[in-house]
Amino acid sequence: MGLVRYLLNLFLLALFAWIVLGYVVVFGRLPWGHPVRKVYDFLSRVFEPILRPIRRVVPPVRIGGAALDLSPLILVFGVYLLLAIL
What residues does 62 pair with on adjacent strands? Predict the structure, then answer.
């Protein structure tokens, strides 16, 4: 059980890093070869297949001209729920 909890906590840490790096990449306008963008792209390849089914069920919420993607938040709640069960 301890290993599973550790891996889920590591997963959450990587998910939070991916969310923050997403804002850094978008608002920082980093060039393609920047190391931060490379880390973000790697984490995107990890998390996008997991988030895609959630996005099919819960589409982004429209706020004016922008859209708020709630799928990472739902994934975080799901992992916390799983940790509480374990």
Answer: 67
